[in-house]
Every structure is written in C-alpha cells, then in structure tokens.
Amino acid sequence: MLAITQSTMFDDYAYDNPEQFIPDRNAYHHFNFGFASHDCLGKFIGMVMIPEMVKQVLIRKDIGSAEKIDYKGGPFPESYPLTWK
After folding, report:
1. DSSP state at residue 33
2. Whole-angstrom Cα distance, residue 48 to residue 35?
3. Residues 11-20: contacts with CB under 8 Å, at least 24 apart
4. Count of other CB atoms within 10 angstroms of residue 79
5. Of 1, 7, 22, 43, which sits with the fewest C-beta atoms within 10 Å of its C-beta?
6. CB 57 within 8 A of CB 72
7. Which residues pair with 54 in a beta bridge?
C-alpha cells in the first residue's frame, strides 16, 4: 500500500490558498502523519526508536564529541559532531 498524502495538502477546505507557499501556515491540518483515527502507526514506532538509537550511539565508550553541540541560535540542537575512536 502506498499512501499518497501530498494531494491532501492542497485541500482548500483545510487550507486557505493551498497552492501558495506560506511558511508560517498553521500546521494543525498537516496530513503527513494524519490525526485522530487516521494517525500514522509508524509515528509511534519512530517516537520510541529514534531516541533509543541516539541513546545507543551516545553510550558507546568509543564515541566522543568533536565539538560542543551547536544550536545555531535556535532552541534545538542543529549539529553535534562526534568522533569514532
């Protein structure tokens, strides 16, 4: 099964001017992961897997930081260069 979600992003019922690029558009009606009964099951798997993968990399003894975490002026980390010993 292939879910084609991009066409839903052009629904004029959910979006004003769906053909126009508006960077600060309200993301409430964003359909990539769905919502309510249409929630993507993979979203919940990813919410568990991604933190666990990061944890497994960071607890290795042969991994070290090459530089400090770079936030690039924002509230979230943008890069964290690591070295493999």
Report:
1. S
2. 18
3. none
4. 10
5. 1
6. no
7. none
